Amino acid sequence: MTALARLIQRFKQLPGIGEKSAQRIARYILRIEHEDAARLSEAILEARSRTRTCRRCGNLTEDEFCEICKDPSRVQTEICVVEEAFDIPLIERAGAYQGLYHVLGGVLSPMEDVSADELRITELVERVKNEGTKEVILATSATTEGETTALYVAGQLKGMGIRVSRIARGIPVGADLGLADEVTISKAIRGRESLDSGERT
Ligand SMILES: [Zn+2]
C-alpha cells in the first residue's frame, strides 16, 4: 500500500468522513507546504498528549482542574450534568448558565452495554455531598437513553436535600445538544423543570 493510500485509509476512520471526503482531504494535504503538513501532524499529537480530564468535573483541560472549576466567579452551588465534555462549550456559548458542570462520560444504554458504574455518577453524588450543592440540572439529550439516564441520576440524588431539575423541552425530542442552537439551549436551561426539590439542611 502506498503512503497516500494509507493516509486516505486513516482519514476514512474519522467520524463522518467517507471515501470522497478522505480523498478530498488527502488532495489538500499533497498541495500544502511540507512545513504546514508538519504543523498539522504536530497539532494532532499535541492536542492528543496534552488534553486530559478535569479531576473535579471531567471537562477537558490541560491542567489538573479546568477553567470553569478554577473560576471563583462561577456559582459554586449549581452543577449542570452533561453527557460529554463537548456539550460544555455549547451550553457556555448560550450564556444562560453560570454554575459548574459534571461530565457523565456517556448515557445508560442497554443496547451498547453501558451500565451505571461506567458513568461518573458516584463522583457526582460525592460532589453533591461535599461541595454544598443546592441544585443539579440534568442536561442529558432528549433521546430515550438521555431521559433514562436523567431519571436514574435523579434517583441517585433523591433525599439529598437538593433541587434536581431537567432542562426544558426546548430541545427537540430525539436530538442531542450538538444539534440545538444557542437560543434553544438557553431557553431549555431557563425553563428547566424540577424533578425533586428540597431544602438542603
Ligand atoms: Zn472542571
Automatic annotation (TrEMBL):
Coiled coil stretches, renumbered: none
Q: Which InterPro entries match?
A: DNA_Rcmb_RecR, Rcmb_RecR, Rcmb_RecR_Znf, TOPRIM_dom, TOPRIM_RecR
Instruction: Supply the HAMAP family for this chain.
Output: RecR (MF_00017)
Which keywords has UniProt assigned to this entry? DNA damage, DNA recombination, DNA repair, Metal-binding, Zinc, Zinc-finger
Q: Start and end of every Toprim domain?
A: 77-172
Q: MF terms per GO, please?
A: DNA binding; zinc ion binding
The name under which this protein is listed is: Recombination protein RecR
Q: SMART domains under this entry?
A: TOPRIM
Concerning its family, UniProt says: Belongs to the RecR family.
Function text = May play a role in DNA repair. It seems to be involved in an RecBC-independent recombinational process of DNA repair. It may act with RecF and RecO.
Q: Which segments does the record annotate as C4-type zinc fingers?
A: 54-69
Pfam families linked to this entry: RecR_C (PF21175), RecR_HhH (PF21176), RecR_ZnF (PF02132), Toprim_4 (PF13662)
Q: Which domain of life is it from?
A: Bacteria
The biological process GO terms on file are: DNA recombination; DNA repair
